[in-house]
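Our preliminary data section would be incomplete without showing what the modeling component actually yields. Below, a chain of 356 amino acids is followed by its predicted structure, encoded as C-alpha cells that our downstream tools consume directly.
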Amino acid sequence: KAVVDGGKSTPGLSEPQDHTFVLDHQLSAPVMPPKRKRIGGPVSAAKVSKKSATGIGSGGTKTSEAASSSSSSSSLQDEFVQLLSQPQFRGKGIANMSLKAHFGDEQYPKLVPIINELMKQSRLTMSRSQPSHPNDQPEVYFALLSSEEATKLLGLDGQAKMVYQVVEASGNKGIWTVDVRSQTGIPQSNLAKIFKALENRRLIKPIKSVTAKTKKLYMLFDLTPSKDITGGPWYTEYEFDHEFIAELRNFILMCVRRMNRGDGVTLKQIANKMIQANVSRVQLSLDEVQQVLQTLAFDYLVEQRSVTADGEALFVAAKQITTCCNFGQWEDFLSSDFPFRGIRYQDNIYLSAHEP
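Predicted structure:
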C-alpha cells in the first residue's frame, strides 16, 4: 500500500530480494489514496495543466520501460533460437550448462518464459542424458524443432515430446524400449501409452533386429532401418534366407564358367549379368555380389586368375583339388612297377615314368 503523508507518497511495498524470477504482474498493485471531494468551483486551468503534465510524464516513462523490456525479450529469444539452430546443436540439442555459460548469470534466468513459450508452441523439446557415472546428475538438453516437426507434435505433452526426441536421436538403428525408459525416466505404464499415441500419429514405428528378435525397437516412421538391424538382403522376415543365397551362388558359378569362354570374368560383369537376368528380388550392390562370390572362393569353387588392364580382378572356375582322404590311387603307388610307368591323376595331372 502507499502511505499518503502531506501530499508525499512513501512506498509501503518492499522490493523482492530476487526480482529475476518474479514477474511484474505478480506484485500487488498499490492502493491509491481516496479522492478528495470537490468543495469549490472549477479547478483552474493552470492546476489541471500542471497535474496533467505530471501524469503524462509518469505514464510516458512506464510505456517506454515496457517497450524496452519487450524489445529486450524479443532480441533474447532471437539469440536463443539462432543458437539452437546451429548445426552442432541439431538433433540432441544443447546442454543446460552450455546455455548458462553462453548467456551468463544475468541473461540466463530471463530464458525461462522464452523456453516455456517455445515448448507450448511445440518448437522446443527437452530431454535428459544418461550420466556416465552413477553419482553424476543427468544433464538436461534443449533441442529446437522445425515448423513441420512442431505441427506433428502439436497437442502432445512434454513426456511424449521427450520420447519422440529420444527416438529421433537413434536414427535408422532404432532404440530399445528399455533405453528409452532409462533416458527419459518415464514409468513403463506411461511409456506404453506414449508409444501407442505416437504410433497412431504415424510418428514412430516398432521394428525388430535380426540379432535380438525378442527386443522391441522404435524408430521414426519415415526412416528405413539400417542393414545392421534388418540383416540386408540375406534375411527374409528376420530369418536367414538359405535358398536365396544358394540360387545366387549357382548363378554366379554359371557366369564364371560360361562367360568369356571361361577365361575370366570381372565382378562388374557378374553384377550386370545378374541385373539382366533379374535373379535377385532386391537390388544388390557390388559389395553384396562380392560377398556371395567370396563364399564360392572359400569353398574352392572360384579363384582369381589375374587382373585386367584396369586393375579389375578376373575370376575363373577353380581347379579340382584331390585331398589325401579322397585320393583313390594308392594302389598305383604301392605297385612294384610304379616308377616305370606314367600315371594320370584325378585332377588331370600326369606324372611321367621316372626312376626312384
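Residues 1-34, 36-58 have pLDDT under 50 and may be disordered. The longest helix spans residues 45-84. Preliminary results of this kind motivate Aim 1 of the renewal.
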